[in-house]
UniProtKB/TrEMBL annotation:
<dbReference type="Pfam" id="PF06628">
    <property type="entry name" value="Catalase-rel"/>
</dbReference>
<comment type="similarity">
    <text>Belongs to the catalase family.</text>
</comment>
<comment type="function">
    <text>Occurs in almost all aerobically respiring organisms and serves to protect cells from the toxic effects of hydrogen peroxide.</text>
</comment>
<dbReference type="Pfam" id="PF00199">
    <property type="entry name" value="Catalase"/>
</dbReference>
<dbReference type="InterPro" id="IPR011614">
    <property type="entry name" value="Catalase_core"/>
</dbReference>
<dbReference type="GO" id="GO:0042744">
    <property type="term" value="P:hydrogen peroxide catabolic process"/>
</dbReference>
<dbReference type="GO" id="GO:0046872">
    <property type="term" value="F:metal ion binding"/>
</dbReference>
<feature type="cross-link" description="3'-histidyl-3-tyrosine (His-Tyr)">
    <location>
        <begin position="364"/>
        <end position="387"/>
    </location>
</feature>
<dbReference type="InterPro" id="IPR024712">
    <property type="entry name" value="Catalase_clade2"/>
</dbReference>
<dbReference type="InterPro" id="IPR024708">
    <property type="entry name" value="Catalase_AS"/>
</dbReference>
<feature type="active site">
    <location>
        <position position="173"/>
    </location>
</feature>
<dbReference type="InterPro" id="IPR043156">
    <property type="entry name" value="Catalase_clade2_helical"/>
</dbReference>
<dbReference type="GO" id="GO:0005829">
    <property type="term" value="C:cytosol"/>
</dbReference>
<keyword id="KW-0349">Heme</keyword>
<dbReference type="GO" id="GO:0006979">
    <property type="term" value="P:response to oxidative stress"/>
</dbReference>
<dbReference type="GO" id="GO:0004096">
    <property type="term" value="F:catalase activity"/>
</dbReference>
<dbReference type="InterPro" id="IPR041399">
    <property type="entry name" value="Catalase_large_C"/>
</dbReference>
Amino acid sequence: MADLSSQGIGRSVANAAAHAVQGVKGALGVGMTEKRQQLNQIAVQDNANTVLTTSSGVPITTVDDSLKAGERGPTLIEDFQFRDRMAHFDRERIPERVVHARGSAAHGYFQVYESLSDLTRAAPFQDPSKKTPVFVRLSTVQGSKGSADTVRDVRGFATKFYTDEGNWDLVGNNIPVFFIQDAVKFPDLVHALKPEPHNEIPQGQTAHDNFWDFVSLLPESTHMLMWIMSDRTIPRSFRMINGFGVHTFRFVNADGVSRFVKFHWRPVLGVHSFIWDEALKTAGRDPDYLRRDLWMSIEMGDFPEWELGIQVIEESEADKLPFDILDATKYIPEEIVPIRYIGKMTLNRNPDEFFPETEQAVFHPGHLIPGIDVSEDPLLQGRLFSYTDTAFHRVGTNFNELPINRPVCPVHNHQRGGFMRHTIVKGQANYHPNSLGGGCPALASASKGYVHYPAPVIGRKTSNRAGSFSDHFSQARMFYNSMTDTEKGHILGAFSFELSKVSTMGIRQRMVDLLNKVDHDLSVKLADNLGVKAPEKSEVESSTKVLGVAASPALSIIKSNKYDTIRGRMVGIYIMPGYDSTVSELMGALTAAGAVPLTLSAKGGPVPDASGSSTTTPSFTFSASSSTQFDALFIPGGRKSVDALLENVPALVQIAEGFKHLKAIAAVNEGVEVVQRLSLMVKTAEDNSVAVDYGVITAKGVGTGMNGKLGKAAGMAAGAVSG
Ligand code: HDD
């Protein structure tokens, strides 16, 4: 039964998909950024044609037996090779990140569409011909390093720009708002959302008493709760998530003029999500699903891309907004300030080794460059302390010297010492001012160096919160009102699932009462699902009155997506001996459209087609695969093949499950009998026609030329259902 293991499935997916697009990578080449060159020079090693040595370079002749006093005698402590290996091994782990422990990363570059020098002097935004190297880590928040990928959770979206003027990190999430308004509450938030302290349950999810106890007592979290209970938190792929800087930052131009700015990443493939049941099943069958998907797409040369958008707000306009621009629980609707898309990021290279790159990468919202500054947002201000502090603890004092964290521009200063110091600085002077070192490193002029924006600050010391932070419901309501009925249903389902795992009825009731301030109908239905009292309708101010915007279509995944591409999508093709020629037709059409056709059969060996002249070695067996790993399913014709499929229970169960998860399903010729047997649709194709019924496409005897229609229809359906 080894092939049933989730690892088995995963490996086959990677191999099969890589095989399906063999040669693409070579043709497209791999990006050689300044960062790549630097890593090659200082760190990347290749073990090919080398001899094994100890860590001090002594050649090793055996690794199988330690040095002993006699063949059956005790091991001798003088075996320095044994000690060298064991002592290093014993120290291999470092603390995992206190949040966002589970993540995957990739290298790439960012390119601006046109110069933004009127807005900012920041290096990546000056020259459209400049490719700024980036390293991006995408993560979940709650789970440990080894937790599953497809759990319901916020996704972290951290980007390190290696610019000519130092590293700039944009450390965001796939949700544009946050749970809390002030960083001082972050330890409480994280304690509440992590597994409970007495039994370390549950992993990778917030469906437990502590989390809902905390948030039900914290009205400021309501807006974020609406987002995390939406489909945003069960993404189909890391390649299909938004990224948001969340806070208000500042752009400062060469004249010292500052404007507020919000950052948005928009995935070129659109935003797509799982069905909840599918996410749960995938977490079991392939816990590395999102990590593998990211890795594989890059290996295949189908590079993930995002456009960077900005919302720019003049400092003088900020106070006119109906909420506080410094409040991280608020979002600026596009209807109030449109998003301008200013450039594109492409991820085109997987790390060579996970630990030195992905694990040792340190991101920090305080890694700023000239032209970008922070606002007074109290959540951001606290983050400025936490990230370096945690880096010192997790990685060490000299984390900035590690290859992955090193800037590509020169670094010169008087920092010395600390554990694991790498740099050797010539000369005597390690202080400023000095004459013994010729005064160097010299101070930069104001036009070259970082100058903090001289934002005026007045006030008395206080721990009070600004009154302008007090509206916790208008935007939560606006978000909910922006959803389609389908999405509203998913939100109700998510609240019902999570809160049904809360054993304390008082917490369930408190959440229902809180949500009554967002939407009465939602809270009444939720109360019914949870077995608590339905609240009375409460008098709430309408979102339109408070925000001027009742609903923002851009917030709905379904309303804002264009479902017009099958690029990067996986299509499972069910073949048994005797399948017809529609298989090769469809595979050609799918590959041409950038999709990944993958074949499945009962056994792993080559499967002959109807003509007997050609065979296909399946990517998977039915038992070692699952409908959840595909975006669409295809059942070809061929009398013998279809008869065998109709007898194969695992295959039929898979196809029926795919239907349940709203996959696009296409069946042609005799293959139509399979979807008829499963009663997946009412209307099927007549001879010489194509029919579409509830996501199931059937075609009979349409011959050549069918591939285009089917490919397009399957593509649209795959996109449409996953939204
Ligand atoms: Fe944070 C990691 C995003 C609030 C403290 N955070 C971390 C990562 C992301 C975010 C993407 C993972 C970075 C990586 O891949 O290495 N965090 C956010 C966003 C926030 C936010 C978008 C709200 C807008 N975080 C936040 C607050 C604090 C922290 C308020 C504390 C005051 N975050 C941390 C941390 C972590 C971290 C403890 C854990 C590991 C690390 O930093 O390097 O410092």
